[in-house]
Design brief:
binds S-adenosylmethionine; binds iron/sulfur cluster; alpha/beta; TIM Barrel; twelve-stranded mixed β-sheet
Amino acid sequence: MTIEPRIETAAPAMIDPFGRAVTYLRVSVTDRCDFRCTYCMSEHMNFLPKQELLSLEELDRVCSAFIAKGVRKLRLTGGEPLVRRDMMTLVRALGRHLRAGALDELTLTTNGSQLARFAGELAEAGIRRINVSLDTLDPENFARITRWGKLAQVLEGIEAATRAGIKIKINTVALRGENEDEIPALIEWAHGAGHDITLIETMPMGDIDGDRTEQYLPLSLVRAKLSERWTLDDLPDRTGGPARYVRIRETRGRLGFITPLTHNFCESCNRVRLTCTGTLFMCLGQEDAADLRAPVRASASDELLNAAIDEAITRKPKGHDFIIDRRHKQPAVARHMSMTGG
Ligand code: SAM
Ligand code: SF4
């Protein structure tokens, strides 16, 4: 399969009604995954029929339209992006925007299971940094949390990516009673290997088999405990996203906290999210969305697509209002994180 290059360089900004420039697009390329993490999916998920998905060519077209409109950073996610068939075709095609200087960063969030196989090709396509999700270093706990995953495979993937020259950031979801006690060890391991690590609070998205209120561990508590052990120096680094960073003096590594439930980070939000069916979500925590698949399929020119994107940006809301409702135990947002990729 070949993807015809469309390169645009003159990039007018997309400005939302609150004056925020949208410069970051996250794209969930598939809702499928080779793991079934307990906080993310139920064990028996119904996945989308293939014909509903945007083809790789269509994904490339939509991403390129966003780049032409001023997106400078593009993250591919999922589900598990590296299980989508022929995924490297898309990655290589998008790499042309890096070479043309139209994109600053092309990156990926992955569970790491396929990294050993693809690390070299990812590096060749221009990917310099990736996020790898890893919640525990204990093989049995890893199998329990991911249901289907194998820790050794992920660790091999991380090593392969590092050898290929890709910088790794570890993402760890903090889970009460499940990996709570392992968090210091994970941090020591990550920093010892030269990786940044970010802790994430569970978000109430999509039905899962268990009870989310049982898994929810406020990062304020985690941070307080870590402060008893180490010296945490606040860093000014902001990415326009929800993470706040500290440097741990003793390990000399960077640690991030993503706390959507206990902090409001929406005022600096610079991102929108595209699902694999071409639905654009202007906010992770709201249901409002725009369909980009219909305009993509309606014509070969990008006029309708561009108009749909412009209209969607006028609807970007001020912020989200996630709560984990302890009485009703329903997710605040019905779609799973694997639809929008986090
Ligand atoms: N499969 C890839 C992975 O696991 O990295 C990419 C998609 S996954 C949905 C992206 C990130 O969202 C992962 O770091 C995962 O741990 C996180 N995640 C999934 N469900 C979540 C939830 N309900 N609350 C908080 N984070 C979640
Ligand atoms: Fe798959 Fe990532 Fe969700 Fe785990 S968190 S089930 S690896 S999409």
